[in-house]
Design goal:
Elements: H1 2-14, H2 26-49, H3 53-72, H4 76-79, H5 81-103, H6 106-132
Length: about 140
């Protein structure tokens, strides 16, 4: 099980925010990854608006790496259908960001950021839900 979360930790290290990762449990790590993901997407939007192509590519690559880390951390044994759904969403998002980078498609990046912000909001609410009843984590 530890190996599954090491992929997420590696993705997090790639976005230069390592100090909190070793001290976090898996839920906190997922929350940190989502915060970094939404930040990278917002940065990509800004770079696209300013036609700063080099920084756009960096921000989109960062977001894609984080999505890969999130997908690698999914626990299909515990999460079953939720894990499958999240895997599909992460895969769609990665493909969409690749396409958006090639075509400089700002509306598509905004769509993915809105989608990831919604999922992030659910992850932020999860600690309270876990305090009230047992819920299997799927990442």
């Amino acid at each position: 099980m530890k190996g599954r979360y090491s992929h997420g930790a590696n993705a997090y290290r790639n976005v230069r925010t390592t100090t909190a990762a070793p001290y976090s449990d898996s839920l906190q790590l997922i929350q940190m990854l989502f915060s970094a993901l939404v930040e990278a997407l917002a940065e990509a939007e800004g770079h696209m608006s300013r036609n700063n192509f080099e920084q756009k590519a960096y921000s989109l690559n960062r977001a894609i790496k984080i999505l890969s880390g999130l997908q690698d951390s999914l626990d299909f044994d515990k999460g079953k259908e939720l894990a499958l759904n999240l895997s599909d969403i992460y895969d769609y998002s990665r493909r969409s960001l690749l396409k958006a980078g090639i075509k400089n498609d700002l509306p598509l990046v905004r769509e993915i950021r809105r989608l990831m912000t919604e999922i992030d909001s659910a992850w932020q609410l999860l600690p309270n839900a876990l305090n009230h009843q047992p819920v299997p984590l799927a990442s």
